[in-house]
Amino acid sequence: MPLSIDRRRALALASSFIAAPWLVPRAGRAAEAWPVRPVKYVNGFPAGGATDTLSRVLCQKLSELSGQSFVVENKAGAGGVLGADAIAKSPPDGYTVGLGGIASNVLAIGSYAKLPYRPREDFTFISGMWQLPNILTAKKDLFSADLKELLAAFRKEPGKYTYASAGFGTTLHLSGEMMNSMAGVQVRHVPYRGAAPALNDLLAGNIDLLFDNLPGSLPSVRAGTIRPVAVTAKKRIAELPDVPAMAELLPGYEMTSWAALVGPANMPPDLVAQINALAAKALNDPWVKQRYADLGATTWPTTTQEITAYRDSEEGRLLPIMKAAGIKPEGGG
């Protein structure tokens, strides 16, 4: 027997109520719980360096606050590009995040002719994490650690001396090439797969100089096993008040490293908000702030909009400096 019009309407209405929960937009529903399992944090530099130490401090606090483990995975190579690529190609579910920032999301653009990812579009910029200056150090038996004397020697014997960095296209590489360009010298660049092996070779006397993030070299400086030459901040820093800023002899010289917590593109906004809130809570924790300060770094929590805009501004500022310093895109990421 055919259904009456009234019965058909009633059944249709009942069906609409059954389907309604599935039709409610995501923004109208409560955010899904996160994290409910361990989170992988990818660091594109090797264990033992400054980025590794700072990342592990933060991940320890994130683990304590969330009740889930944040596991650091070091995927070193190509100045952070390999690690960034692993993040970019991960599912946007919040269970793979990691280290982004000035090296892999800005300087890589001017360093590599071809990258395996798009430095802006293939990432979700969740929060800032830290900022820190770089430092130029010398092996213990180098003839001098005085910046003025070193620059004079570099000018006298072009190409004789070497400086190491954590890799091609890093802020450490740019710090060295800015010195070469602004001082009119030729100190040969020796790139390593991360700061830790570069520091080991400086300690062994196999290279003359090293540009490093401050936290990586500060313990060795304090121990007297390497000698500080200059910092790349605009002015002298509180941790090493007797060490000059490069800008004292090279006006306008300034280079600050910064790091961002990033995930792959297309992460749901409510998930990004949860991770950002957790990161802010961790970065504002007194223990984390003190540990960072002890290492010469400053905690740097931001909104997602602020860190995205900052990345954009750094690209506009630094790519012309790279070009002026003679850094040309080469190879592939």
Automatic annotation (TrEMBL):
Family, according to the entry, reads as follows: Belongs to the UPF0065 (bug) family.
This protein is called what? Tripartite-type tricarboxylate transporter, receptor component TctC
Query: Sorted alphabetically, which PANTHER family does this protein's record hold?
Result: BLR1237 PROTEIN, TRICARBOXYLATE-BINDING PROTEIN
Taxonomic superkingdom: Bacteria
> SUPFAM superfamilies under this entry?
Periplasmic binding protein-like II
InterPro entries listed in its UniProt record: BUG, Bug_dom1
